[in-house]
Amino acid sequence: MRRTLFESLTHGPLTETAPRPQNSGIAELAAAVERLARRRLGRGLALRHVDAGSCNGCELEIHALSNAF
Amino acid sequence: MPSLQNILAQGRAVEAHRPWPRVTVSADLWTAAANELAEGRATLLGLWGEAGTGSSVHMALIGEDNRDTSVLSLVCPEMEFPSVSKRHAPAIRLERALHSLFGLRPIGIPDPRPWLDLGFWDMQFPLGARSAPAPRPYTFLPVEGENLHQIPVGPVHAGIIEPGHFRFTAAGETVARLEERLGYVHKGIESLMAGATLERGARLAARTSGDSTVAYGIAFARAVEAALKIELPPRAHYLRALMAELERLANHLGDIGAICNDASFVLLHAHCGILRELVLRAAQSCFGHRLMMDRVIPGGVTTDLGSPGVTTLRDLIRRVRDRFPLLVELYDNTASLQDRTAATGILDGALARRFGAPGFVGRASGRDFDARKTPGYPPYPGLDFTVPVLTAGDVNARVWIRIREVEQSLALVEQMLERLPQGPIAAAFDAADRNGEGLALVEGFRGDVLVSLRLEAGHVARCHLRDPSWFQWPLLEVAIEGNIVADFPLCNKSFNCSYSGHDS
Questions:
Q1: Touching check for A57 and chain B: CB below 8 Å?
Q2: Any idea what the CATH number is for the domain that residue B84 is in?
Q3: Structural domain includes residue B349
Q4: What percent of chain B has pLDDT over 70?
Q5: Is the same domain home to B223 and B85?
Q6: CB contact under 8 A, B290 and A61
Q7: Averaged over A44-48, what is the pLDDT?
Q8: I need a labelling partner for B16 at 20 to 30 A (CA). Which of B69, B119, B204, B394 fits?
Q9: Pairwise CA distance, residues B113 & B131, whole Å
C-alpha cells in the first residue's frame, strides 16, 4: 500500500482543466442560472438525483464525474 | 420420465425458429419439462408469455452438459398454464411477472403476489387484456422469532444508484430475512418493441441496461440475424467482441473498486476508477461513445476501427496491465479489507446451479457456464481464453472471478487486435416483408442476456429480453441471510444486479 500511496504523491493529480464553453450562449445561460439560483437558494444549493426510469447509463456517468480525472 | 430430448421430440417443431428448436408442447409435456428443471437435468434460461390471439407461454432451457438449448411453447386459450415454479422455485418471479404483465395465470404458483406491477399503473395486465387497476395492499413474507425488527430501505437510495426496495428483518445486527421488491424502473420496453422497426428495436434493446448496452445490442442483433438468416462479415464479429470485452473490462474494473469502497477502502476505488475511465475514454476515441451505445446494429456494427484505434487499444491494454497487478496485490494483502470480503455473503453452489446463476455470481459458486463457450458464438470459438471458476461463493470469490476475467478480457482484446480480419463491418440485408423467429444468448459482463423475438413483415412483432439479474436477485436474498446488516452493501455490490434490466 505504501508504494501505491507514495506513487500517487509523486505523480501529481490527474485533474484536468474544465473545458471552456464553446459558445457564448452557454456562458450567458450559466450566468442567468447562477443569478437566479443565488436569489432563490442563496449558497445552499444541493442536487438530489432520483432515477425514475433510467437505463443506468446516466448514473454511471454521474459517478464518473467524481473519479480522479 | 421423459428426458428433455424426448420432450423436444414429442412436441411440434416450429419451422421459422432459429438457431435452436422451438417446439409447441402439451400441458403434460410442459409439466414434464418443469420436472426436468426441478430434478436438475435442465437449467431455466427464461420464461415469458404473449397474449392476444394465440395466448401462450414460452420457456427457454438448456439441457445437461449445456446442450440442447431450446424453447418450449404452450398455447393457453384459457389464459392459464401449469405453474413451473410449483416444482422449480427459480421460476417464481418470472411467473409472477408473467401474470402481472399479461394476465396469464400460472396454476399452482406458490407465491401469487404481483411482480413489477407496484400498483401505480393506470391499468392491469398492460401486455394482455388491459383492464382497470385493482390495487391491493402488498404483504411481505412473514418472519417469525423473538426480538425481530424491520429495516425498510429504498426505493430511493441516498446515492446515485438505481431504485429498489429492500425489506430487512434483523435480529440485532444479523439479517434473518431480506425481501426485495422491484419494478420501480419498469419502462415497458417489451410493449414499446411491439411493431417497432429493426432500427428502433435495436435502440430499445440497447437501453435495457446501460451498463450492458453492447451485450444487449449484440443479443438483439443476433436474434434478428438468426430469424432472417443473415451472415455477418468476420470483421463485424470481431468488432462486436472487442466492444463487448471493453464493456466487460469497464464494468469489472469499476465494480472491483466499488466493492472495496463499500468496505471503506477508498484507495482501491480511486485507482480502479482511473482504469475504468481509461477504458471508457478509449471506447469514446475508438467507437465514438463511452458506453458504446448503438454501435451494434442488426447486420453488423456502425463504426469501424482504424489503425489509430488499434494503437489506442494496444496502449490501453499496456496501461491497464501496468497498473492492475499492483491493485490486485493491494486487495489481496490488505487484511482489513479481506476481513470484510472473505466468508461474507456465501452463495451455496447447489443453489447457484439450481437457479442457473449467470455470470460471476454462478462462477464464484462453482457453476462453470459462459455463453461465449457454450452454446458459443463468433468470434469466441476461435479465440484462446479460459473461464475462471471458484467454489467459495463469498464476496471475495466474486471479486477474484472478476479479477481473472479482467485478465482474460485483456488477453482477448490483444488476440483480436492481432487477428482482426479485413473487410466490411456490416452485411446488407432487406428485412421488408420478411418473417422469422430468433433466439440469442450473449454473455454480458453480468452474465447471459437472452433475447427472443418474432419478426413479422420486417417489424418486431414480439420481443422478450431477459436480463441475467432475474436469476441473481433471488440469490442475493439467500446470500445475505445470517450476515450483518452492515455487510449488505458489500454483498449487494459483489452481485451488482441490474434494476433497469430486470424491471425493463
A1: yes
A2: 3.30.460.80
A3: yes
A4: 100
A5: no
A6: yes
A7: 79
A8: B204
A9: 18
pLDDT above 90 (res B51): no
- Does residue B136 sit within a domain? no
Query: What does pTM read for this prediction?
Result: 0.96
Q: For B257, name the nearest residue in chain A, comparing CA atoms only.
A: A67
Contact status of A50 with chain B (Cβ, < 8 Å)? yes
Indicate whether B428 and B291 sit together in one domain: yes
pLDDT band at residue A11 under the 50/70/90 scheme:
confident
- Any B CB within 8 A of A27 CB: no
Residues B458 and B342 in one domain: yes
In contact, B138 and B113? CB cutoff 8 Å: yes
Among B264, B226, B181, residue whose Cα is nearest residue B490: B264
Which residue, among B166, B65, B107, has the nearest Cα to B373 in the 3D structure?
B65
What was the pLDDT predicted at B2? Answer: 65
Q: Which of these three, B107, B138, B161, is where a domain ends?
A: B107
CB contact under 8 A, B161 and A59: yes
- In terms of CA atoms, which chain B residue is nearest residue A1? B330
Residue B174 domain flag = no
> Which grid cell sits at B180?
426485495
Residue B375 DSSP symbol: I
SS (H, E, C) B255-277: HHHHHHHCCCCHHHHHHHHHHHH
**Residue B68 and residue B195 in one domain:** no
| B266: closest chain A residue by CA | A67
- Cβ separation A56–B156 shorter than 8 A: no
Same domain, B301 and B425: yes
Q: Could you tell me the end-to-end alpha-carbon distance of chain A, in angstroms, rounded to an integer?
A: 21
B193 plus B98 within the same structural domain: no
- Distance separating alpha carbons of residues B114 and B116, to the nearest angstrom: 7
Q: Are residues B83 and B194 in the same domain?
A: no
Cell numbers that stand for B284 in this block: 469514446
Name the residue range of residue B56's domain.
4-107
Span A8-21, average pLDDT? 84
To the nearest whole angstrom, how far is the Cα of A25 from the nearest Cα of chain B?
25
Residue B40's nearest CA partner among B23, B60, B62 is B62
> pLDDT tens digits, residue range B249-291?
999 999 999 999 999 999 999 999 999 999 999 999 999 999 9
Domain annotation covers residue B160:
no
Q: Quick one: B88 and B210 in the same domain?
A: no
- Cβ of B267 and A53 within 8 Å? no
Mean pLDDT, chain B, integer? 96
For residue B227, CA distances in Å to B231, B241, B470 come to 11, 21, 25
Contacts of A9 in chain B (CB under 8 A): none
Nearest-CA distance from A59 to chain B in Å? 6
Are residues B276 and A5, on separate chains, in Cβ contact within 8 Å? no
Which residue do the cell numbers 430434478 mark? B39
The residue out of B76, B107, B138 marking a domain boundary is B107
Number of domains present in the structure of chain B: 2
A32 touches chain B (CB under 8 A): no
CATH number of domain containing B396: 1.10.645.10
- With cut-offs at 50, 70 and 90, classify the pLDDT of residue B463: very high
Q: Is A18 on the interface with B (CB under 8 A)?
A: no
Confidence grade of residue B352 (pLDDT, cut at 50, 70, 90): very high
Is the pLDDT score of B1 beyond 60? no
Closest residue in A to B324 (Cα) is A4
Q: DSSP of B128-164, one letter per residue?
A: SS-B--------PPP--STTEEEEEE-SS-SSSS---
**Could A67 and B276 be called an inter-chain contact, meaning their C-beta atoms sit closer than 8 Å?**
yes
